[in-house]
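Hi Y.,

Following your request, here is the sequence exactly as I used it, all 462 residues.
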Amino acid sequence: MSTPVAHPASSAQTSPRAADAADFTVASSGQWLCSTDGRIAPHGDAWLEAVIWFHEHSKYQARDRAHGPRRVGDTTLRVARAMAHLKVCRPGVARLMEWLKLSERTIQYHLRILRETGLLTYGSKGTRIAGVGGRASEFLRTIPRVFDEAVGLRTGPSDRLIRSVRGLAPEGVPLMKKLYKKARRPITKKRTKVTNRRAGRPTSGRAGCTPMVVGTSSLSSAGDLSSPPENELGGMKQTTTEKSPRRKLNRTGRRFQLAGELIQRVGWLHRASVARIAWIVRHVADTGWTADEVIALLSQLAPAQRVNRPSGFLAYRLGSAHKLYDTPAKRAVLVEAWRDSSQAAAQRHAEWSGEWQAPSSRALARQVKEAFACLQPPREQDHSLASLALDEDGQADLTQLTREEVIDLRSAALRDPALVETAIEMCGEAYARRLYTHRLVDQVLRLRGTDRLVLHAGGGTR
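Below is the corresponding structure, written out as tokens. Let me know if you'd prefer a different format.
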């Protein structure tokens, strides 16, 4: 009588240890949460147990590529340890490169190995969004079925984890103990050589400590009793080391320094490029001109009313001035004449006669807004609402308004958002939304959150 031979697939399902020798690789279609046959790891240490098992016992080997690592190695284990305890498993490649000091291609290789072994499953795949930037892929740490069968874990259905552990076979207890211990082993860092910063380290243990009892030792328990030098008395210790002088600017540095000063002080140069202005003033900067001397030269001609190209206008005004005023004495006379002119006096007071600019600080802008609100006269109540009867809450009954009156009120709120703010402060946000619609109220609240301040001609603030 012939003996029946079991099919290899059926024997792999019945024998827990047969999975060790199986050629286990998850296809790309099975690397998503909706198609995986694994279960979600309850915590990072349980997931590391499966990674360590693949590292030490699995026969997985990638055969569809001719370069890069083909098995779960030590570097794969390093990547897994970095990802094991993330609250949200969304590890960007750049962040892993920074943590592990590995190259981008190496990180991508080992993430692919973790996906092909079923240890990582896509929750959402990374993409690039216009105006937002790149989004890293979000993974779920999963434990493949082949691991459960290999160590003898019995699992059952679970709503949160797909499958949860229900028991462990007795023959798998020793292996699980080893995996449990290795998964919780602290990461050992390479010890670096510590330099000896203490000068005059004692050669013997007795010479470096204070004696406990009176003996024949030549050391005193009070230490060195010699008097300090006179220059250290009263905390006036003199130091002989001098601070290193500031590095002198080179030719390019002087050009950019002069260009920056001119852009700050000359009104029609405010929007010019520093690099372009530095190239234009290269001749005067190389011959030692200062910003006052350049401004004095520019003020010789009539002041500019409108400048379309600041850099070209500056190049025209300078011309060959570095050849005409080639000595510091000539330039000093030029500066004195400019300081005595009426144009220089007007420029010194120009900053007080210009338009008021809102402060850049949000806190200061909020204080200015409150100050203008105190100076602003109180707004008169709208005649349309004042003529209405009051409801049970003591507010104007909006049901008595006609369609034309509602349209007029909302048009006024579009022109003056302060009406919406007044309605919110006096009657509440729900009342303001009934009167001015959700869109207008949301727009006003959004603008209020930006803390922007704009002054109108009438003195109002918004």
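DSSP finds 21 helices and seven strands in the chain.

Thanks again,
Q.
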